[in-house]
Structures are given as C-alpha cells and as structure tokens.
Design goal:
8-stranded mixed beta sheet; 39% helix; Nucleotidyltransferase, domain 5; binds adenosine monophosphate; 2 domains
C-alpha cells in the first residue's frame, strides 16, 4: 500500500543520522548512520527491520554520497517514490526563528548568518540540506531548530550580566538547546498526566551525553540550563557545565594553555569523564560506582547534585512545579540518578517510589513518585525524529 513517508536528517560535520518515518503512526521504516564523512573511508550503515547493513561510500565519501546511498537503499526497498518531504534538524536559528520553517533561499541565508552562534553545527546542517536538495530533487525541505522552543524565554533569563553592547552587536546571549525534545516531551507529559498543557508547570530534564534542563510553563520555555553554547549548565558526559569563568585565565596562567585548548578540555575532557577518569558513559560510571570506584562515585554524585540544584532553580523559572520529567538516554534509563535527584529534592514535595522508579527503567514511561508526593515525577521517552516529522508534514501540507 502506498503511504506518505518523511525522511528526517540530522547532520554533524562528519556524520549523518537519518530516519524514514510514517508520520501517521510514528513507525520507523529505516534508520541510518553515516560516519567519517569527508574522509576516504566514509561509510553508512542502514538498519531495516532490525537488520544492519554497511555500505562503503567509495565514490563520494561525503554528505551527498551518504544521501545518494540512502536513496539507493530506498529504491531497493521500493520506498523511494513514497518519500514526500525531508525534515532537517538545525541547531541554531538564533533570534530569527521561534518555529520550524519551510526551506527557502532566505531561510538558508539566515542559517548561514547564525554560523557564528553554532560554528560546528550549522555548517554541517547546511551540508545535509544541500545534499537532500541535490539528491531528492523537487521535494520540499523543512528545518526544525533546536533553539526555537526557547525563544519564549524572558530577557531576564536569556541575558548575561555583561555589557549589553555584546548582545546588541554580536547576539551574545543564552539560546538553549534540545528544544525539539522539550516540545515533544512537554506535549507527551501533558497527555500522560491528563492535564491541559496550557495550565501546567513542568521541569523537564533531558539527560543524554549532552544534558540540559528546562522550565516549561503553559507549554512555553521560560528558562533552560544551556546558554550561548551547550557548555553551560549541568554536568554532562564530557562537558563541565557551569564553572567560574576565571578558570580560563587560571589555566592559561598556571598550565600554559591557550583558549582553544581550554575550550576543548571543558567540552571534551570534563564532566563524568573528567571527574571519574574512567568514561563519559553513564552505564560504566554506575557499574564502577557500585564497586566503590572513588572517581565514579564522585562523578555520579556531582551529576545528580548539580541536576537537583537546577530542578529547584527551574521551579523559580516555571513559577512552581506540577511535575518533574526525566527524558534522554540517562533520564529514561538511570533509576540510580533519578532516585538521587529526587532524594535531594524531597523538600520540594517529591518522594521517590523505588519500585515504580525501577520499573520505568527500560525506556518505558511512568510515574516514579509515591501517591502521597506533593509533586509528581514521570519518565517520558523523547522522540525528536517524530517531532521533526510532524513539523515537516504540517508545513508541507501532508
Ligand atoms: P543519549 O545521548 O540520549 O543517547 O544518551 C546517552 C547516555 O545514556 C549515555 O551516557 C549512556 O550511558 C546513558 N544510558 C543509556 N542506557 C543506560 C542505562 N541502562 N543506564 C544508565 N545510563 C544509560
């Protein structure tokens, strides 16, 4: 039977994640991951019905080659003619976009203009858009911005307390990330709780290798922990999150490091990895912490403590808390971290229910607080691809 399918693309500088979704029921018919794009040994791996298959991109080892291989795979499956539109994740839309957009020349120029705000991501996102336009000629493309959902933050939440000319002249302010996930999870949480999203105060923690938290009041983002870049806020897999900015001059003066080196240390060698001196992977940290590894114990506690402090802070931004929501790889799977965070926040009226917390471990949604808790906590699995597909279908009139 013929169906209308949406291709969702999420491009990094050397990678491409793709998924083909049936927007009506959310079914994923194919997913793929292109890696080492730009290098001679680039390849793409397809996953269809649980079966994986790797294709070397010898002739065109780049984003266009990866999208070309994806079209070939769709032809083999007889799905190519059913692709109706393409949705792209774009990291920064700056202050210009507070919602998803149909791709036009003007939109492309605006994404280019935002490159200083996302120098690693926006150029890669543009490569994906151009590759899709080249290979899937004539199909509409839609861009879904990570920053868009947070454009509702008030000025007192997004402004840094530095001379305002840097905001005026350079756009230096807090933008936040993971907006697509927050929008999806906020809607799902309202549905799950049987509440009207326009009358709901949520604190949502998106905890993956990159992690952030947001205050969502009546369906709108009021504040979030990431800032100009994803470095601000929570302790993450390899990012430090909040630090005293004087760490830069201290390390420059005392360790002879330059700005790029310090930036790399804070982004790539810090967080769970830096503190545990073991791994950025939460599963490894938990396993080793249970065996008593001192660095792993400290990393786990710091991750949970910082997060708990932010839960309380986001309660200020949301004007109260009806529910604390956990999502992302760690949020959906780590009962250990969820329990620690809720224990720190018991004074807010959150009481963890151990059995429910463990039962919600394997990507399942569910309430994890006791019935007599004043504030509820729930696990809601995120689905950014589906949100991008929904926006793409809506904006292309499918
Ligand atoms: P994401 O970036 O959303 O894919 O999340 C990746 C993070 O989720 C990694 O730190 C993983 O270690 C963590 N994660 C995945 N499964 C589990 C699990 N069962 N227990 C704890 N952490 C997990």
């Amino acid at each position: 039977m013929s169906q209308k399918l949406i291709l969702v693309l999420n491009c990094g500088s050397s990678s491409l994640k793709g998924a083909v979704l049936n927007n009506d029921n959310g079914d994923v018919l194919l997913s793929c991951l292109g890696e080492k794009l730009g290098l001679p040994d680039a390849y793409i791996t397809f996953k269809v019905n649980g079966e994986k298959q790797k294709v070397e991109l010898k002739e065109q080892p780049n984003h266009t080659g990866a999208v070309g291989a994806l079209l070939d795979e769709l032809k083999k499956l007889g799905l190519d003619s059913q692709i109706a539109a393409i949705g792209h994740r774009v990291v920064s839309g700056g202050e210009k976009y507070s919602e998803s957009m149909l791709v036009t020349d003007e939109v492309i120029q605006a994404i280019e203009a935002c490159i200083p705000l996302a120098p690693l991501h926006n150029p890669a996102n543009l490569l994906g858009i151009r590759a899709a336009q080249d290979i899937f000629k004539g199909l509409p493309n839609v861009v879904v911005f990570d920053t868009a959902f947070h454009q509702s933050m008030p000025a007192h939440a997004y402004t840094y307390a530095i001379p305002r000319k840097y905001y005026r002249e350079l756009g230096l302010r807090r933008y936040g990330m993971h907006g697509t996930s927050y929008r999806y999870v906020a809607d799902e949480a309202a549905r799950f709780l049987g509440k009207d999203k326009n009358n709901l105060k949520l604190v949502i923690a998106h905890l993956g290798n990159g992690a952030s938290i947001a205050a969502v009041r009546n369906g709108k983002s009021m504040d979030t922990s990431m800032g100009l870049t994803p470095l601000e806020g929570l302790v993450m897999g390899t990012r430090s999150g909040d630090i005293d900015p004087s760490v830069f001059s201290f390390l420059a003066n005392n360790a002879g490091l330059n700005i790029q080196q310090i930036t790399d240390i804070l982004n790539k060698e810090s967080g769970l990895l830096g503190v545990s001196e073991l791994s950025n992977d939460c599963r490894t940290i938990e396993e080793e912490a249970l065996k008593g590894h001192e660095g792993a114990v400290l990393a786990l506690e710091m991750f949970s403590y910082r997060l708990a402090k932010y839960v309380a802070a986001m309660g200020v931004a949301a004007g109260g808390i009806d529910a604390v929501v956990f999502t992302g790889g760690i949020g959906e799977n780590s009962d250990i971290i969820r329990a620690k965070v809720l224990n720190y926040c018991e004074f807010l009226g959150l009481k963890v229910d151990e059995e429910r917390n463990i039962a919600a471990r394997f990507g399942k949604d569910g309430v994890i607080t006791t019935d007599d808790s004043r504030v509820i906590s729930v696990v809601i699995p995120t689905n950014e691809e589906l949100m991008i597909a929904n926006d793409t279908a809506r904006l292309t009139g499918l």
